[in-house]
Amino acid sequence: MTTDKASPRDRLLDAAGALSYRDGVSVGVDALCKEAGVSKRSMYQLFGGKGEVLAASLERRLPGYEQRLRPPAEEAGTPRERILYVFGQLAKASAEPGYHGCPYLAALVELKDPAHPASQVAGAAKERLLAAFRAEAERGGARDANLLARQLVLVFDGASARAGAGVENLQDGLAAVTAAALLDAAGVGAGQGL
Length: 194
Fold this sequence. Notes:
Layout: H1 8-23, H2 29-36, H3 40-46, H4 50-69, H5 79-94, H6 103-111, H7 117-139, H8 145-164, H9 174-186
């Protein structure tokens, strides 16, 4: 249970982030409120329902999630290197205790309702990743930047899901090597960045 001096809203968002990532978005309102140390009445005064809490929790963690996938300015490098950096970060994240895959992909898969508030946040997050890959692919001179971006997201999500399920270990660099092969095939700085 959260016991710090954070506001009830922040405690609910923290609890929703932790519980939904560990246990899935089907976590109950009772468990959420207990973890946050907040009454159900307070939760419904702050949010319209659990869906809004989940959406706000996903939205709140998005800047940190995206920052982790973006190389520091001093390490920016080429478009190819920036793309491969994402896959290196995925490999690092997958080695952390409690890794369960991409929280945005998990929300989309579990909720299955594109109109759900958390699905909308998660879908927008995945679209932003797609757009970032597309922009790098264009800067790198890819023959078909849109196709390459879709392929890269497919590798990212597949690797994330498999590692999160514990059936794949990304420490061997398989996701990055796969992404590099796609970059080579698309003509993006072949032979650079590995």
